[in-house]
Design brief:
- 31% of the residues lie in helices and 26% in strands.
- The chain is α+β, with helices and mostly antiparallel strands and 800 residues long.
- α5 packs parallel to α8, α5 packs across α20 and α10 packs antiparallel against α12.
- The strands form eight sheets. Strands 1, 7, 8, 9, 10, 12, 13, 14, 15 and 18 form a ten-stranded antiparallel beta sheet that branches. Strands 2-3-4-5 form a four-stranded antiparallel beta sheet, with helices on one face.
- It has 20 helices and 32 strands.
- The mean pLDDT is 95.
């Protein structure tokens, strides 16, 4: 198996949508699903192109009420290109006899190749080879090359190349009751002989999207003169080409597309920019592809993750695939944009392209490879701080309360109704009560600082975000005099199965352990942040925020007195009252339903509710062991006045794993992490399950609607940080290796505190750290409690 190629043999109509998601090509500015250029949206195919940050809001009528949703917009499809021999039908792999088919995604080069041979009813055979890229060199360019060989005939070949702005958002079946008509046609036209262009506008956000396509025919490296006819209608422009072909002689159609929006910088108008970019191209497809491949080569130099030896090639390929899709969603071309990281990438319409807490799993990889990119993505949260403040005030709190789902402007985008496809019922959606997203934002700010030491960012942006989130947690926490504890009520934890108590009308849960412990962590870090700031900046910020010592003292008190509940001795209760819930008949449910990952939907369809049971969709309490080392967690609990013995940690892990349905792709990532040192065989099983979650669509259809970017990045981070024990705290790069037996080794470079190229080489018995000569400063390395300072050009080995 080639660790750099994802290949499919044969045409598989039911599986095409999954292939299209996994074969998406992108560059951090826009991405296009891997649909066949001749395919239209339907049961088997869904072409889709998505531009980072381009959203539109529409109102639909559902269940006798008006529902407002903001969606990442499916912009015009630039792919359409099809062929036919004169007198034949347009290419359709399900209509013509298919003699051979193969599709290859080259991860190293970012190129999707498609090979097909078809026979028409009259016996004519055509061989087709297509190559496609979305330029990682120029974020506004994409290319499609189609090489045609008439294998047993000569005559006339017809080509149709189009830009289709008549598309809608219809890629997720359960959303189809909602209005998906986001685009309004504005104008179409022709520029010169070989270029057509299209301009559309989103219906309410008024973003203009322009595309220009240059289509040329080449034979033996020389342009061919062909007959052309341009057809235009609202939202659609196409060129019809006619050319003579000879038996056995190949001809190549090159389609190069420029894409701009009115949100782009340094342009006067999107249409002019798209036409101008294509018109000024001095090069053909091959030269543009060459520069694209060079850009990918540079990315892989920075992002390589070598598993060493003769390890499992499937693991290596899947890790490469996951890095590939991460870099296609966010890249250097994202830095200048005002965008967050959509949970499903730029690969489909699931979750409507919204930003959740998945950055928690994504940023660790970026921090150690592309800290400038993390910095830019954190700015997305900073710019929406005013909206988060307003949300807190509207809910009766102080500080900043970020939304569970965020889109263009930072308001809460979580729907108030959701459809259970198993029962067909629209149900109240309370997931906006997952206030723990604020923990993720604060954690990401702090971890970025720990890796980079970027005090300038903390001074200008990060500290204000962190302090306002701390203010929110201190505000939502109420003091119970009888318990001498602060409590947080009416929230939801990461589990998502529990949104209230059985028999209680008031929504939400009380004293969710993950929320309370991490809220204490945020308050503690906020206090530390105030100490880190230079005196003048601390004075400026506290004056502007009207943050006086009395309030800071309350933060310190709350950080020591937030309530954590326990049951069955030393089991951390997921929330207050968890221990009183009923046990679930897991085996009975599995016998009746098989796959019970979406247990909430199954029980609701049976007239029951997960609120009654000790059952979790994904890690909740276990998130504490994922985000914090055992040492850090015990220290935090001790600060809160609780003791957690080392032997209690595996008991907690086992307790909750036995009661989790793993209905989220993130579940395997967290479980693999928390078991990595206590139960390596089981940890490896969870790791491989997490690797397979999208590649094999373990959730049964969800990946076709968009990849799960948090899980993809999380698997890479398992190799990067979990297996090396990598932590960044106390101005030290800490390492505590625990290499799985299934891996022969690990080798990769990281960037720490401005020093690029620090190499970590891990084998079953040795850890080697090399600091290159180019590093600007010495690096403090901590291994199993010992801290050493490595100077530029030095290497040190440690037993692992």
């Amino acid at each position: 198996m080639n660790a750099w190629v994802l290949a499919y043999d044969g045409c598989d109509p039911p599986g095409e949508r999954l292939r299209e998601a996994l074969c998406t090509l992108g560059n951090g500015y826009f991405a296009t699903r891997g649909a066949a250029p001749e395919a239209a949206a339907g049961a088997d195919h869904y072409p889709g192109t998505y531009v980072a940050g381009v959203y539109n809001r529409l109102v639909s009528r559902v269940a006798d009420r008006e529902v407002e949703n903001e969606d990442l917009v499916n912009v015009p499809n630039w792919l359409p290109l099809t062929i036919r021999p004169e007198g034949g039908e347009w290419l359709d792999l399900q209509a013509q006899e298919l003699l051979g088919y193969r599709q290859e995604l080259d991860l190293r080069r970012g190129v999707l190749t498609r090979l097909a041979r078809v026979r028409y009813p009259d016996g004519r055979v055509i061989g087709v080879t297509q190559r496609r890229f979305v330029s990682m060199d120029d974020p506004h360019l994409a290319g499609l090359e189609t090489t045609v060989v008439p294998e047993n005939w000569s005559g006339t070949l017809e080509v149709r190349s189009a830009l289709d702005g008549q598309v809608t958002n219809a890629g997720v079946e359960r959303y189809r009751a909602l209005d998906g008509r986001h685009l309004v046609p504005v104008e179409t036209g022709q520029a010169g002989d070989d270029t057509v262009w299209l301009l559309v506008e989103t219906r309410t956000s008024r973003v203009r999207i322009a595309q220009a396509a240059r289509t040329r025919v080449v034979q033996d490296g020389q342009p061919l003169s062909v007959g052309r006819r341009t057809m235009q209608e609202p939202g659609l422009v196409a060129q019809h080409l006619v050319l003579d072909v000879r038996e056995g002689e190949q001809v190549t159609i090159e389609k190069v597309v420029g894409l701009f929006t009115s949100k782009d910088r340094a342009i006067a108008e999107a249409g002019d920019a798209a036409r101008g970019r294509v018109a000024r191209l001095p090069d053909g497809f091959d030269r543009l592809l060459e520069r694209h491949v060079l850009a990918w080569d540079q990315l892989w130099r920075r992002c390589h993750l070598d598993l060493g030896g003769d390890g499992d090639p499937e693991v290596a390929r899947t890790l490469n695939l996951h890095v590939f899709h991460l870099l296609q969603t966010v890249s250097e071309h994202t830095i200048d944009l005002d965008v967050g990281v959509p949970a499903r990438g730029l690969h489909g319409e699931a979750y409507r392209g919204h930003i959740f807490w998945d950055e928690l799993f994504i940023f660790p990889f970026l921090n150690l490879r592309f800290p400038e990119l993390t910095r830019a993505l954190l700015q997305y949260r900073f710019r929406r701080l005013p909206e988060a403040r307003q949300a807190a005030r509207a809910a009766g709190y102080e500080g900043a309360m970020y939304p569970w789902q965020s889109g263009s402007d930072g308001r809460e985008e979580t729907q108030r109704l959701h459809l259970n496809p198993k029962s067909g019922r629209w149900l109240p959606d309370r997931s906006h009560r997952q206030r723990h997203v604020n923990i993720a934002v604060a954690y990401n700010v702090w971890q970025y600082y720990q890796v980079t030491g970027d005090l300038a960012f903390l001074e200008a942006y990060g500290a204000e975000v962190l302090l306002e989130i701390a203010r929110f947690w201190a505000s939502i926490a109420t003091y119970d005099h009888a318990l001498d504890r602060y409590e947080i009520r009416g929230v939801m934890g990461p589990d998502e199965y529990h949104d209230g108590y059985p028999g209680r009308d008031t929504p939400g849960l009380d004293n969710n352990a993950y929320t309370n412990v991490m809220a204490a962590w945020v308050l503690w870090r906020a206090l530390e942040t105030l100490e880190l700031l230079p005196d003048h900046r601390r004075t400026e910020l506290t004056e502007r925020l009207e943050l006086w010592q009395e309030e800071v003292d309350r933060w310190d008190e709350a950080s020591r007195k937030l309530r954590v509940c326990f049951h069955d001795g030393d089991i951390i209760s997921q929330f207050e009252g968890y221990g009183d819930l009923e046990e679930l008949d897991w085996e009975g449910l599995r016998r009746r339903h098989g796959n019970i990952r979406r247990l909430d939907r199954i029980l609701e369809a049976e007239g029951d509710s997960t609120n009654r049971y000790k059952a979790s969709k994904q890690a909740d309490v276990l998130m504490l062991f994922y985000l914090l080392s055992a040492e850090e967690l015990r220290g935090l609990l001790e600060r809160l006045g609780y003791q957690l013995a080392p032997e209690a940690i595996p008991r907690n892990v086992d307790y909750y794993l036995e009661r989790t349905s793993h209905g989220s792709t993130l579940s395997g990532v967290v479980n693999a992490w928390v078991l990595a040192r206590s139960d390596r065989p089981r940890a490896w099983r969870f790791f491989t399950e997490a690797l397979a979650s999208d590649l094999h669509d373990v959730q049964g259809g969800t990946t076709a609607e968009g990849i799960h970017l948090g899980a993809m990045a999380g698997t890479v981070d398992l190799a990067q940080r979990c297996y090396t024990g990598l932590e960044t705290r106390e101005d030290v790069l800490w390492l505590n290796p625990s290499l799985p037996e299934e891996l022969d080794g690990l080798d990769f470079d990281v960037r720490y505190r401005g020093n690029w190229g620090i190499n970590l080489h891990l084998t079953p018995d040795r850890l080697r750290v090399r600091v290159p000569v180019s590093c600007a400063t010495p690096v403090r390395i901590g291994v199993k409690g010992e801290v050493v300072e490595l100077t530029p050009g030095s290497t040190r080995e440690f037993p692992s």
